[in-house]
Structure formats: C-alpha cells, structure tokens
C-alpha cells in the first residue's frame, strides 16, 4: 500500500492545506517569506488543476506584532482583540502574496456552531466554498477567534482542517507543521527518535507517542494532528504531516516525493452527510449497546434496534445526534435518533413488537436507522 502513496497526491483534484503557527511565525511576527513561498506553491499547483483550500493559523502572531505585545495576553477579551487586529494583517499578507501570482483570496471565519448546529448553515458554508473554487479564488479559512468561546470552539485548526476536508470532499489533507512528521519519540529531547513514514492504523500506542510531542506555538500539538488524521482516514481521506519550513514542500509532496508521515485512508469513502453526522455534529447524549448490537452495527452495518440498548446517557429530543458506545466505553458510531431520551429509556432492551405497548405508538422500528448512522473504525 505504501507504493500507492504517490498516486494519492498525483491523482488529487482537491486538497485542504493546513498551516500551523510554528510555520507562519517568525521572531518578530508573521514569517512573510514562508507565506510568499506557500502562496507561490499553491498557485503553481492550481495552474496544474489542483483546487486548494487553505486553513491558516497566524492571526495571534500578527496581532501581537502590530500591537507591540511581547507575549499573548491571558485574558480572553484581550486574546480575542489581538486576534481581531491580527486577522486583518494575516489576510492582507496572503492577499499581497497571492496577487503576485495573479490569484485572489477570500477570508472565511468560522465557529463550530456554523457547521454543527444547523445542516442549512453547514451547506451554506460548503456552497460558498464551492463557488469560490469555481471562481478560482483561494479560500483562506480560520476559526473566528474574535467571537469564539469555549462552547463553540473547534478546539484547534488541526480539527478544523479535518472538518473542512470532510465537508468539501477533499482528496487529501496536508498538515504543515514545524517538524518533519510523527516520530517514535520527541526528536527535540530523544536522540533515538525516528520518523514514522507511514501509519496504516491509528492505535492507542501511536496516540500515546503523539501526546508526548507538544507544539511550541498555537493550541495544537502532535496529538491534535493525530486526531485530525483519524477523522480524515475514517472518512476515506489520506493525510500527511510534513515540515512546512522545508523548501517547496507542497511541490515535492504533490510530485510524489516521500516527505513526512502519511496516514493511509479507509477503503470506504463516507458520504458528505455521514461525515457531517459522525464528525461535525456535537452529540447530545450517549447510547450504550450490548455486544450483539455492537457486532451488528460495526460488522454488518445494521440499524440500532431498542433491544440492543442497555443504557441511555443525557437528555435529548427526536432527531438529536448521539454517540453509540459499547460496554467497554469505546465509541462505535454516531447517529440521529428516531426517539427522544425519555422514550428510549422506556423501550431499551425491548423487542420492536413491544414498542407500541410501551409508548402507545410505534412510528419506527429502529432507534437509529443505518442511513442516519456513521460507524467508526475500532
């Protein structure tokens, strides 16, 4: 399968490129040389037919420089104000860089609510990005730090880039950071650490290794990149973590050169709607299922019937997104329920023929139909 790595890049028609703070930040603010280089590379790839959506950090670094702060403030209003000042400088820097190569850019600022609360808002955002790509305008996407609070945060731009890749049906996700990829240990402190060139499956051991490799700048360390890779790979999208400070890194990657750590995707590509259900919607509760239901869902792609449910966690209404977990606490799937939590508590463990007896009506046999369910790899 490793031999196919180059073909993923060469056959890609649409890519999401995420650039982290460690790549974009210089000692005195934004690294304008890196921004110019990345802009040139994206324009070169675009001329060859590749559509690129850019998820960019850097607003905070830009704002700190413009205001004259030595470090990021601790207070949330001040951090948001710095980001507001910096976002203008960041997009201006990109605009000037891309203009050199005859390309226009568009700024898109999002919060988690824009994608997870309403399917309509999600589709509006997707349609806007499709239109920009059709106009050959490069969308530059960032979290809206000016208004975001903890409840509506994506978490970091690693997660945001994975969600954009899923939403836009990207063929590949490129995560550019300030080291060469995932190592067996922290290369800054462990002389025995070795680069991992290919990851076939994201195991607990890999997550443990990544958790010991914090990021110097920004909010996302290596673990957040691994979690982004898990989302992308489950949805059938390959991802690479590579060094954004390496000369012409994007050109090298899309020419098929081995760089960074490549995460192989699942063989089955998820539909856009199932990606939205599984990775973008925020679960309102959890259903615990027994071993028989777990096998039926994971191995056979079956719907969830009330008989397989052992526990209901949380309070939620009809149509709400929920997690499905097995008896060991592992997340098996996510889905939209046909019944509210109160009704599910009454019918859990029952046969479908008993639903009307318990509720007085039986609008559905399934608690979650397989068409409204996204199964995770376990």
Can you count the helices? 15
What proportion of the residues form beta strands (DSSP E)? 15-25%
Helix content: 25-40%
The gross shape turns out to be globular
**CATH-level-2 architecture of the largest domain:** 3-Layer(aba) Sandwich
- How many strand units? 15
Radius of gyration: 22 Å
Mean residue pLDDT: 88
CATH class of the largest domain: Alpha Beta
Give me the side-by-side strand order of the main sheet. Answer: 5-6-4-1-7-9-10-8
Provide a concise account of the structure shown.
By secondary structure, the chain is α/β, with parallel strands linked by helices.
Provide an overview of this structure.
- The protein has 15 helices and 15 strands.
- The protein is of the alpha/beta class and about 375 residues long.
- The protein has two domains: about 1-275, Acetylglutamate kinase-like (Carbamate kinase, 3-Layer(aba) Sandwich); about 285-375, Roll (Archaeosine Trna-guanine Transglycosylase, Chain: A, domain 4), CATH 2.30.130.10.
- The protein has an eight-stranded mixed beta sheet with strand order 5-6-4-1-7-9-10-8, sandwiched between helices. Strands 12-11-13-14-15 form a five-stranded mixed beta sheet, with helices on both faces. A two-stranded antiparallel ribbon has the order 2-3.
- α3 (about 30-45) crosses α5 (about 75-100) and α8 (about 155-165) packs parallel to α10.
- The chain starts with a helix and ends with a strand.
